[in-house]
Specification:
The complex is a heterotrimer. Chain A is α+β, with helices and mostly antiparallel strands. Chain A is about 40% helix and about 15% strand. Chain A has eight helices and twelve strands. In chain A, the strands form three sheets. In chain A, strands 3-2-1-5-8 form a five-stranded mixed beta sheet, with no helix packed on it. A five-stranded mixed beta sheet of chain A has the order 4-10-9-6-7. In chain B, α6 runs antiparallel to α17, α8 (about 255-285) packs parallel to α10 and α11 packs parallel to α14. Helices cover about 65% and strands about 0% of the residues of chain B. The radius of gyration of chain B is 25 Å and the shape is globular. The chains are: A alpha+beta, B mainly alpha, C mainly alpha. Chains in contact: A-B, B-C.
């Protein structure tokens, strides 16, 4: 008769272990490490649902273990007793009890919590950011300003922001788990969610709808900055590109404008005007390249320019077949675009 | 007791006459022309096992690629083909044909006391179309143009601009081609259940297995055309220049999703309801007790498919629909849970109230209940729309549906393989390796799928060919890969056990388990005519009704309802099961195999864009149909 | 002993329907059974499946319509009203003809069966020939690849015409078989194909209604 007792002792340990594992330290992109009221509500919902679920599972397992322990050997004899009890349990545990629980869940989740995760009204926030999904990078614009960047979004901390998503090609999905639910970027439609961060920090997000070959490498960062820092950042992003002083960087600019780079990438304040790839006006302010695929340092930038297909196979940037010198110059120029 | 040994010399003579009347052609030609539902069931069984192997290999390759971050086992484009093929194969080419084509075909006529399905030649056609549709799909893999936009293939990614090769054309046509097979099977099952039951088997005396297959068949019949329409539109958009999904010309990307999920959600119930049917037959046999609350369970089986037609947009919560629409679908999704909870508690109570013998089949059912409840609970979590919107398209949802599909569809299939192995082969399987195979599978699948819940909550989206090293996902992925290999080992042990048992197992006799349903009254394996006497039925547990079985033996001696004058079968009224007419069934025919081949040629020409030639082969199909119907059953 | 299973009849009275060939035997067999044969049920299944297919296509037409501010969009002609309605009315006459043929088969009037089948075939073929020609003219003037409206419009019509064509093939087969006499198999087929034609007629009304709805509002 001991198995049920041993099992019961394991259960809280198991629950604790799960909790520890899930709320682990130092994670990014973690639904259970919420940093906004919307994602906190979602995480809390999950914890409650998980608790009740373990109970439900334990109940069913207990029933089956009980069936095993209770069976005594009476071969080949049809058992007829107990139909009324069985019927009552099926009605009680199979109909009444689930209806009560599920109705409660429905009310809490779909009438109350849903209010914080639906799109904010257009006039409910003071700032709107428009994000456009491309294969396989994110275009970020700040309407009302000239700021355009890619794969990095900055917002002022503790300020509700309306984030609108659209797509330039296929369906993408904007998802930064620590701040809110996912929202699809659908062709022909503009969807919106609220972006809000409780604390200053960097939050990782990723495309959450299969969008082709490099769906795996379509991440982005959301930086929640103190208001002054944010304003400085935005003001900088609005400015046109810095003109290089001279030397290698100037050669790099020349190389950029005369080669096909300028037909795919825009650098505001120069003749480079293209919309296939990200806006590079302030590319040096970004911490990564290729939508979080590689860090934004000299070595990786060089490698990317020389052979982006080796880094992110299938991406829209062809192999440029540039000489080593030209690449050095280009990198020097791009490093100066901060 | 069974009618295995004929009671009198005249009875033996009658059985011999039946044997000559019903046996098919010998040899390989016999397999190509068979209309015997048992042979067709076996053909389906072997073919689906092969395709299961393919789907499993795809899964293991993906898991190997994901075992460590930034691996280079396969390229991104190959990975995209792998996950697409894995989904398509497992759903359309394994679960549906294994449950309906193999189990349904073999067992349904036996369970209702019939000699064959209502349309035996069309049954064979279902198989040949299925076989050729599987070959068609895997030709795309061999040519390096396998579908690569996922099993649900969203547009615009799947349209001609973003996916210009033949990949998606293969997808559309394979789905339509395979859909014909399943539609024919569904129609077959419904008509057979309505018209071919043994006289006296009114609806309330029909085994729960048959209710389950009726529900699944109705689901297939009404859901598949939605997918057919969707894939026709996509094929036309890609090849003829229509604009169903093209936003710039008035089309809608949402249209694809709506039609797809209006099919897709009922489809998942179609996947698991036959498995419920298998479970509801294994449980009575191994607890020696009729299932508790029979009418509730029967209605629940029908209701879960019916309500399942009304919940589709819960797959689309992230698309930006109006809150009120989302909440409506949330409410419908909440309702669909109840028929499943009814069944889970009915099964558990039957096990408690009866005398549970945890032999291998019941072990698999216990495992099934565990995994179904796990998957069902995470499914209930999706009633909360904000939570769904937070974890949709992540590994959390992969965990959810694999617990349901592997746990609630595949475990009963494995249990059913063990349970009916003695009936189909006449041999007993080896019990100890059977139990070991269960435990290996149980450990393996839980190790494979449980960490997916965690890693999905930690932010890992699905359909990624790799992942970075600094997000804390590595250990879970590695554990899952190990679990995958353990699962594969369990499957190999299971199949190996059955294989060896076939040659070395003990004689099973007609009824090793004292099972409840009619198939246990006849020999193992059953004779080609199934039952020497069309059985008398007074309940859904006919093998436990001793008086009826004794009466059948008396009838065999006196020649009542033996129907040995021709290839004869009964037809009854749909609801009450009263005997209405006696019909001749068609004999073996080469036309189904020929028509299957002709259809394959039609689809092959369509996929390479040769529409004129396809038209010619279509004319060939029409001529095959004329040939098929030129000889009538009584001639 | 076996009354319970034969609905109060004697077992010997249960007809062996497939064995019946020739007018009197078939008449007897068909009259003795209480419900439709498996063939009819099978056709009902096919009709259900095709019905859902058309529901999807008609639903698509309306879904796309509510997405579009103007319907038909600029550049696409409004659908014609009079001729399509006349044509579907003509096709509808095939329903009573087929039903009459089935009734005649039950009553053993073979010549009537053949005559009505032949008449129905003429109506069906005439309808089909006209519709196909009209379709060809229309699609040359306004290609299918114009926009979502033309896509939905032509696919819906083409699917309907395809089902009429299949019905014509069914009728050809019936005429061939009934020219050689009557068996229960053939009578069952006639019963099932009659059901098919009722479906096709209703379907064509629904399809034309959908097509013409673009002219309204």
């Amino acid at each position: 008769m001991t198995p049920p007792l041993r099992f019961r002792r394991w259960l809280p340990l198991l629950g604790l272990g799960v909790v520890l594992v899930l709320t682990g330290c130092d994670r990014q992109q973690d639904t259970l490490a919420p940093k906004s009221h919307a994602s906190t509500d979602i995480a809390n919902l999950f914890w409650w649902m998980m608790g009740v679920s373990w109970f439900g599972l334990a109940l069913v397992v207990a029933l089956m273990i009980f069936a095993w322990r209770k069976a005594h050997r009476r071969p080949g004899h049809e058992v007829k007793e107990g139909e009324q009890l069985g019927f009552r349990v099926v009605i009680g545990a199979g109909i009444v009890f689930p209806i009560v629980l599920i109705a409660a869940l429905f009310v809490i989740g779909d009438i109350f919590v849903i209010k914080v995760t639906q799109a904010p009204a257009k006039d409910a926030t003071r700032m709107t950011i428009v994000v456009t999904g491309h294969q396989w990078w994110w275009e970020v614009r700040y309407p009302g300003t000239t700021a355009v960047t890619a794969n990095e979004i900055h917002i002022p901390v503790r300020t509700p922001v309306r984030l609108e998503v659209k797509t330039a090609d296929v369906i993408h999905s904007f998802w930064v788990p620590e701040l809110n639910r996912t929202i699809d970027a659908m062709p022909g439609k503009r969807n919106a969610i609220e972006l809000y961060a409780d604390a200053v920090g960097r939050y990782r997000g990723q495309c959450d709808e299969f969008c082709g070959l490099q769906h795996a490498h379509m991440g982005f960062y959301v930086y929640a900055d103190p208001p002054t820092v944010f304003r400085r950042w935005l003001a900088n992003q609005e400015k046109p590109a810095r003109t290089p002083g001279g030397g290698l960087a100037a050669q790099g600019k020349q190389a950029f404008m005369t080669s096909s780079c300028a037909s795919c990438h825009t650098i505001r304040g120069t003749s480079a005007s293209g919309y296939v790839g990200p806006d590079l006006t302030h590319v040096a302010t970004r911490s990564t390249l290729a939508a979080l695929t590689i860090p934004n340092d000299r070595r990786d930038l060089s490698h990317w320019i020389v052979d982006s297909q080796a880094v992110k196979p299938g991406n829209q940037m062809p192999n440029m077949h540039l000489s080593g010198d030209k690449v050095k110059a280009l990198v020097a120029y791009l490093e100066g675009l901060n | 007791m069974a009618i295995a040994t004929p009671p009198t010399p005249t009875a033996a003579e009658r059985m011999h006459l039946l044997e000559t009347m019903w046996e098919g052609r010998p040899g390989i030609l016999g397999w190509f022309t068979t209309t015997d539902h048992k042979k067709i069931g076996l053909l389906y069984f072997w073919t689906t096992l092969l395709l299961f192997g393919a789907g499993g290999a795809e899964a293991l390759t993906m898991r190997t690629q994901l075992a460590v971050p930034n691996a280079h086992v396969v390229s991104p484009s190959t990975y995209d083909e792998l996950f697409s093929l894995h989904g398509i194969t497992m759903i359309f080419f394994f679960i549906i044909p294994m449950t309906t084509g193999a189990f349904g075909n073999y067992l349904l006529p036996l369970m209702i006391g019939a000699r064959d399905m209502a349309f035996p030649r069309m049954n064979a056609l279902s198989y040949w179309i299925f076989l050729w549709s599987g070959i068609f799909l895997y030709i795309s893999f061999a040519l390096g143009v396998a579908p690569n936009a996922g099993w649900f293939d969203y547009v615009p990614l799947a349209n001609g601009h973003y996916d210009p090769g033949r990949n998606i054309d293969f997808y559309c046509l394979a789905i339509i081609f395979n859909g014909i097979s399943s539609t024919l099977t569904a129609a077959q099952f419904i008509v057979t259940i309505f018209k071919s039951r043994a006289p006296g088997m009114s609806f309330n005396r029909m085994p729960l297995f048959c209710f389950a297959f009726l529900a699944a068949s109705a689901g297939l019949l009404f859901a598949l055309p939605l997918l057919t329409a969707d894939t026709i539109f996509l094929f036309l958009d890609r090849n003829v220049g229509t604009h169903f999904f093209d936003v710039a010309s008035g089309g809608s990307a949402f249209l694809w999703q709506h039609l797809f999920w209006m099919f897709g959600h009922p489809e998942v119930y179609i996947l698991i309801v036959p498995a419920f049917g298998i479970a509801t037959e294994i449980i009575p046999a191994f607890t020696q007790r009729r299932v508790t609350a029979f009418p509730l369970v029967a209605i629940a089986e029908l209701l879960v498919v019916f309500i399942g037609f009304g919940v589709w947009a819960h797959h689309m919560y992230a698309t930006g629909m109006a809150t009120i629409t989302a909440v409506f679908f949330g409410a419908a999704t909440a309702m669909v849970v109840i028929p499943s909870t009814i069944q889970v508690f009915a099964w558990c109570m039957t096990m408690i109230l009866g005398t549970a013998r945890f032999k291998t089949p019941l072990l698999f059912i216990a495992g099934f209940i565990f995994m179904f409840v796990m998957g069902g609970l995470t499914g209930i979590m999706f009633v909360a729309i904000p939570f769904d919107q937070a974890v949709t398209d992540t590994y959390f949802i992969i965990a959810h549906f694999h617990y349901i599909i592997f746990g609630a569809a595949v475990f009963p299939i494995f249990g059913g393989m063990y349970y009916w192995f003695p009936k189909v082969t006449g041999k007993l399987y080896f019990e100890l390796p059977g139990q070991i195979s269960f435990w290996i599978l149980f450990v393996g699948t839980n190790l494979l799928f449980f960490p997916m819940h965690i890693v999905g909550l930690l932010g890992m989206p699905r359909r990624q060919y790799t992942y970075p090293a600094n997000l804390g996902w590595e250990s879970y992925n590695l554990a899952e890969t190990i679990g995958g290999y353990i699962t594969a080992a369990g499957i190999l042990l299971l199949l190996g056990n059955l294989f060896v048992s076939y040659f070395r197992g003990e004689e099973a006799g007609p009824d090793p388990w004292h099972g409840a349903t009619l198939e246990w009254t006849t020999t193992s394996p059953p004779p080609p005519y199934n039952y020497a006497v069309i059985p008398k039925v007074s309940s859904a547990y006919a093998n436990w009704d001793e008086e009826d079985r004794a009466e059948d033996r008396r009838k065999l001696a006196t020649g009542v309802l033996v129907l040995q004058e021709g290839h004869e079968q009964v037809a009854v009224t749909p609801v009450d099961g009263t005997l209405d007419e006696i019909v001749e069934m068609p004999h073996d025919s080469p036309w189904p195999a020929l028509l299957g081949l002709s259809l394959f040629l039609v689809f092959s020409m369509l996929v390479i864009g040769k529409y004129g030639v396809a038209g010619c082969f279509a004319i060939g199909c029409v001529l095959s149909l004329f040939g098929w119907h030129s000889k009538e059953p009584q001639e | 002993m076996t009354d319970y299973i034969a609905g109060g009849r004697r077992l010997e009275d249960v007809p062996k329907t497939t064995k019946a060939t020739g007018v009197p035997a078939v008449q007897y067999a068909v009259a003795r059974r209480t419900g439709p044969p498996a063939a009819w049920w099978g056709m009902l299944m096919l009709i259900s499946s095709e019905g859902v297919l058309f529901a999807a296509m008609m639903g698509t037409f309306f879904y796309l319509r509510f997405n579009d501010p103007q319907w038909p969009p600029k550049g696409d002609p409004e659908p014609k009203f009079i001729i399509p309605l006349i044509m579907v009315a003509v096709l509808s006459t095939t329903s009573p003809m087929m039903q009459g043929a089935w009734r005649a088969a039950r009553e053993g009037r073979l010549m009537m069966v053949r005559g009505l089948l032949f008449l129905a075939l003429i109506v069906q073929s005439g309808y089909f020939a006209y519709e196909v020609t009209d379709f060809g003219h229309e699609i040359q003037k306004t290609p299918i690849s114009n926009d979502a409206y033309t896509s939905a419009h032509y696919v819906l019509l083409a699917a309907d015409h395809a089902h009429v064509f299949v019905g014509i093939l069914f009728n050809l087969w019936l005429i061939w078989k009934f020219s050689r006499g009557i068996t229960t198999y053939r009578a069952n087929a006639l019963q099932a194909i009659t059901l098919y034609w009722h479906f096709v007629v209703l379907l064509t009304w629904a399809v034309i209604g959908t097509i013409l709805s673009a002219a309204v509002g």
